[in-house]
Amino acid sequence: MIGRRQLPVASPVRASALVRAAWPAFWRSARGRRALAAELRERYGARGALLTDSGTSALVLALRLAVGGGEGKTVAFPGYACVDLAAAARFARVRVRLYDLDPRTLAPDLDSLVAAIARGVDAIVIAHLYGFPAYTPALAALAARHGIPIIEDAAQGAGGLIDGTPLGALGALSVLSFGRGKGTTGGHGGALLWREPRFDQPATHAAQPLSRPRRGWGDLAAATAQWALGRPALYGIPSAIPALRLGEMVYHPAHEPRPLSAAAASLVRRALVAADREVVIRRRNAAALEIAAEEGSDIQTIHPVAGGESGYLRYPVVDGGVRDERPDLGVLRGYPRTLHEQAELRPVLHPGEPPTPGATELRQGLFTVPTHSMVTRQDMEKLIDWLRVPTRLLVPVHADGKRGVRHPRIAFRRAHSK
What is the Cα–Cα distance from 259 to 180, expressed in whole angstroms? Predict the structure, then answer.
């Protein structure tokens, strides 16, 4: 029998939204898409919005617009990020250089970024991870000095803020994702936003193949399955199916961007309302988790950059090597490879790119803890215990040499004080 299993991340879907999405899907209505585009422009302070079938497709368009076509140009990527960045770069035919991240904030390491710019780049991609801001005023000033546009990958922005501005409203170009694990879902989908007049004409040209929406029955089916099985009591069922590869980082080749479906547009509009409520709950849960995480010397907490506030799509910590995953609680490791180690990126990666030690540290020790509204009080107690108490004892004996039971955190501290 399959037992209860907590979701690592949740994107709320309501039954009423599923019913309402069937109508635009049946008629292939474009009205909901126009309304969603207008809402995104207002919410994120954009001149325009293109609605796509995925966040990866939106990133493909962003790369093309940022470098004036793509082929032969070079973009700077963070060393630790989703493999979808590699897929977009390959399809857009751009070359890639890598810069490092600060493991204490998940934001770009400015010295590393300066070095990447010196090696030659035409655009910079920043990626907000788990709701933590990657965009900083210093980064913006650096890009402006060199005349390099910033592409803001806000797929995981999840309600985060920098100086009161929502993530997704910062770059010259911004990318949103409406996949199942991004906090706001339409089954599938994404959006490209732009804020500078120079992108008006190329964006209008890019919009032409996206003008006729798909019906989106597949998106509606995916969202319905998420609504039915995306709860702790039933999530163990899809998690037990190896072919679904839930919780894994899987490379999917990019394709020519397609339009967001009519059904997905309807779902996203209603999900935006639920997402605003959800971020309040995630921040409250993250505050409790942070207290537990900071009690032990065996774990490194991550804090937003100055002026930033995380949306806590998940609560990330860097472990000292003494904890294991707890899939039953939704506690999973981060990305299993840095982008430098990702085989799919190598065909477009400039040779001789320097190592990214911060990214390697995150690959080795980062765990994410669930924060969403389906985390119960009992779950929180277990998650707090996981944060406070290392899974494996580094010192299995007492100081006098006698074997016995000892509080794991005390054993860990004594081991590292010698």
Answer: 18
Q: Are 173 and 192 in contact (CB under 8 A)?
A: yes
Beta partners for residue 175, in sequence order: 153, 192
Q: Quickly state the pLDDT bin for 409 (edges 50, 70, 90).
A: very low
Residue where the block lists tokens 């501290």? 413
Task: Using the CB atoms, write b or e for 89-127: b if 16+ within 10 Å.
Answer: bbbbbbbbbbbbbbbebbbbbeebbeebbeeebbbbbbb
Cβ–Cβ < 8 Å for 193, 168: yes
pTM for this predicted structure = 0.91
CATH at 187: 3.40.640.10
Which pair of structure tokens corresponds to residue 24?
């635009």
Whole-Å CA distances, 250 to 59, 84, 85, 106, 246:
17, 9, 12, 22, 9
Count of other CB atoms within 10 angstroms of residue 235: 22
Contact 317, 130 (CB under 8 A): no
| Sign, CA torsion 106/377/232/23 | negative
Mind listing the pLDDT tens digit for each residue in 97-130?
Answer: 999 999 999 999 999 999 999 999 999 999 999 9
What is the residue whose two structure tokens read 């985060």?
160
Tally of domains in the chain: 1
Closest by CA to 189, choosing from 222, 225, 226, is: 222
Q: Is residue 306 part of a domain?
A: yes
Domain membership of residue 323 as a residue range: 15-386
Instruction: Give per-residue pLDDT as tens, 49-65.
Output: 999 999 999 999 999 99
